[in-house]
From TrEMBL:
Belongs to the phosphatidylethanolamine-binding protein family. One of its GO terms (biological process) is vegetative to reproductive phase transition of meristem. It comes from the Eukaryota. This is CEN-like protein 1. It holds the Pfam family PBP. SUPFAM superfamilies: PEBP-like.
Length: 175
């Protein structure tokens, strides 16, 4: 198992959200409000992630297109995620070697607001196999299923993934 995959497996992203895959594209997720780059398993306070992040996509295929998904597999609580997964953001047709702002936003960014427990927020990047393509918006943000969505839209396995943890902030934690 590659060193890049290990934190995704330990954090149960691989297994619960997606099947094992080989990362082939560099993806950086940066919240500019706090100049914080998302790193697997690190905690970010909800108060600093209210605006959508910048998502830079690497690779060497400028003609390729990508789909970005942000999901919460622990919704509404990690001990009882009966609405698993909750879709927070969906962007398609992102040109390679650019960032998500160049894509087509299918589901607007929804600020994470964990109420109970520590939630994982997962960013998954898929290479679109047919270049620009029609990706249908899901009927609901709740009970979103990344595997099923990927299969229905011909996306295959992810080419990159990263996740962070967040939990409800108390007044003491905000200081």
């Amino acid at each position: 198992m590659s060193r890049m995959m290990e934190p995704l497996t330990v954090g149960r992203v691989v297994g619960e959200v997606v099947d094992i895959f080989t990362p082939t594209v560099k993806m950086d997720v940066i919240y500019s409000s706090c100049n914080k780059q998302v790193a697997n398993g690190h905690e970010i306070m909800p108060s600093v992630i209210t605006a959508k992040p910048r998502v830079d996509i690497g690779g060497d295929d400028m003609r390729g297109a990508y789909t970005l998904i942000m999901t919460d597999p622990d919704f509404p609580s990690p001990s009882d995620p009966y609405l698993r997964e909750h879709l927070h953001w969906l962007v398609t047709d992102i040109p390679g070697t650019t960032d998500a702002s160049f894509g087509k936003e299918i589901a607007e960014y929804e600020t994470p607001r964990p109420v109970v427990g520590i939630h994982r927020y997962v960013f998954l990047l898929f290479k679109q196999t047919r270049g620009r393509q029609t990706v249908r918006a899901p009927a609901s943000r709740d009970n979103f299923n990344t595997r099923k969505f990927s299969q229905e839209n011909g996306l295959g396995l992810p080419v990159a993934a990263v996740y962070f943890n967040a939990q409800r902030e108390t007044a003491a934690r905000r200081r």
